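Technical note accompanying the year-one report. For the benefit of new consortium partners, we illustrate the data format agreed upon in the data management plan: each record pairs a sequence with a structure-token string. No post-processing was applied to the example shown here.
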Amino acid sequence: MKRHLIAGALALAAGTAAVPGVSAHADSPAANTTVAEARRATAKYHDVGVAVADGYVPVTACVQLPGVGGMGIHYLNRALAADPAIVADRPEELLYAPDDDGRLHLVAVEYFRADADQDLSTDGDRPALAGIPFDGPMAGHAPGMPIHYDLHVWAWRANPAGTFAEWNPDVHC
């Protein structure tokens, strides 16, 4: 079950840039409420079978970038991804990391929105959640995936890089 998606991870790293202001909002009451809402809404998804039954499907192998960290395996809910609303208790993606025995553990959620004009050079429609701007715009990470914005929330595994950082140095595939 331990698979690496280095090419995808490199595309993720190349296609994203730090967004100014994230750290300024990361400890705000709104950010803390968002993390709490995400945890309440996704507690049942510690069982990956429940996530699959609710429409989340795996769309990547385990993503990690040596020397930076990992994200895990992305499970996408296509219906939520197609809806432009960004709601704290309805994340478009769930991220799972395998343990040494290959069992999956819920580590984070990810919010996703397709870029309206599909132009990497503009960001006038950058979404935010709890005052935290999303990363992007970035190219899709798989065939057919649009240019988009995303925001990681490490609701289930502590991230020394920060609750809203893209990569978690403690996640390994």
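Partners are asked to follow this layout when depositing records. The beta strands are 56-58, 63-65, 69-77, 93-98, 104-114, 128-129, 132-133, 135-138, 148-153.
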